[in-house]
Design goal:
The chain has 10 helices and 16 strands. It is of the alpha/beta class.
């Protein structure tokens, strides 16, 4: 009898401990990545398209005003985000163009965010765009994603899904509109995994071309009409595409709330590079856009949302970069011990949760050899290509109109030396 009573008491204790563990679960991480979305495309940044759900997300969280991607094009940006390292270390400084590309991508041996989360018991998924290697050996399922449904290349038709994959196999039975499908799959994943921690990467193809709305089904398209051009007709379509993306963000946030997961989930939204010139001229505050080393190429919209953890209505003017998200997410999840020891990014945990200052550091943006190398040192911006050197004071000259390299010889020399050292040491395999 005493033995039986002891066992029963032990069982009750174990149940109580399990209940405590359940209430103290590790946070979920949801990353929502837009494609080719610039700050001034959004009313949130005084731009031309209203996005009410993203605006609400910013009111309830932290809005970044000086957030950057590591490149002004897709593949390098995504590589840096997923690995927490400069993309040059993996030899991916340009766009991977799909089946025409020489063998290029993130090898499975390279540590990535989803791999660290999966190894620590998280459910993981990617829906949408990959663009980090076309061949099967680079497929997302080899990088820690339990689920992958999407496309491997840089772009896709929004209504035809012949190039989409479900893991390593061709995806079957997909119908609808691409933005809606990505959202629906993300919502389904959240519901299926509500009882365990998860890492979800929602990688939208919007607002990348082709410019197609839900109404632009294949049977309704005008033959010979360009769906890639930046013109007035496509501008109207672009606006609808962004609004559909915004609705999808809202559906994800609503699902988290309905499943009782909002307080346990950090949602981070950003874009993979700057705009493509769709906004009317009066809304273009920054110089350049996609394929540019000027601020318009890599300064992008970004929002962090975590009710009860991130102070509502905060704005961050800290200089932060996409590769900072790897150490930030793992630090917040309490699994940073599993990080590789060679990350270039830094954790923003205390900045997000306590609004602490982010230490000053040099940041480099590369799109070599096409555009040279850019660098930020606080308010100062330098771009070097060959013998051409440009230096701008972004505090007084946000449009990068006046080259101050000759007037600030000492600063120019110091920053150019830093760029030369970066290019010499941050190389493939380093």
């Amino acid at each position: 009898m005493r033995y039986r009573a002891f066992v029963c008491l032990l069982c009750v204790s174990m149940v109580a401990m399990q209940g405590l563990a359940d209430t103290d679960r590790r946070p979920n991480i949801v990353v929502i990545l837009a494609d080719d979305l610039g700050c001034r495309d959004m009313g949130l940044y005084n731009g031309w398209v209203k996005t009410p759900r993203l605006e609400r997300m910013a009111r309830e969280g932290m809005l970044f005003t000086d957030f950057h991607t590591n490149s002004s094009v897709c593949s390098p940006t995504r590589v840096a985000f997923l690995t927490g390292r400069y993309q040059q270390r993996l030899g991916i400084a340009d766009v991977i163009v799909g089946s025409r590309e020489p063998d290029s991508g993130i090898l499975p041996s390279v540590p990535t965010i989803p791999r660290v989360f999966k190894d620590n018991g998280y459910a993981t998924a990617l829906y949408g765009k990959w663009h980090c290697g076309y061949q099967d050996k680079y497929n997302p399922v080899h990088h820690g994603f339990d689920e992958f449904v999407g496309f491997l290349t840089g772009g896709s038709d929004f209504h035809r899904f012949g190039g989409w994959r479900n893991g390593l196999e061709r995806a079957q039975g997909l119908e609808g509109y691409g933005t809606h499908l990505i959202t629906e799959m993300s919502v389904g994943f959240i519901k299926r995994n509500k009882d365990k921690p998860f890492f979800l990467y929602v990688s939208h193809q919007a607002v990348h071309n082709p410019y197609q709305t839900p109404a632009d089904t294949p049977d309704r398209r005008v033959r010979g009409e360009s769906q890639h051009a930046t013109n007035d007709k496509n501008r109207a379509k672009y606006k609808v595409m962004l609004q559909e993306l915004d609705k999808g963000v809202g559906q994800i946030l609503d699902t988290l709330a309905a499943q009782g997961l909002a307080d346990d989930t950090l949602v981070f939204f950003f874009s993979d590079n700057g705009a493509v010139g769709m906004s009317p001229q009066q809304f273009r505050l920054r110089r350049g856009g996609k394929f540019s080393q000027y601020e318009g190429g890599h300064r992008v919209p970004a929002i962090a949302w975590w009710p009860g953890k991130i102070k509502a209505g905060t704005k961050s003017d800290a200089l932060v970069v996409g590769f900072d998200l790897f150490p930030t997410f793992t630090d917040i999840a309490g699994i940073a011990k599993s990080n590789p020891g060679n990350l270039d990014g830094v954790s923003l945990k205390d900045h997000l949760l306590k609004q602490k200052y982010v230490p000053d550091r040099d940041i480099f943006f590369g799109y070599e050899p096409k555009l040279g190398t850019a660098m930020r040192r606080g308010q100062w911006k330098m771009i070097v290509k060959g013998d051409n050197v440009e230096l701008y004071d972004l505090q007084t000259d946000p449009k990068e109109a006046t080259n101050l390299a000759a007037q600030h010889a000492e600063r120019t020399m110091s920053m150019r030396k830093a760029i030369d050292q970066f290019k010499a040491t941050v190389t493939p395999g380093s």
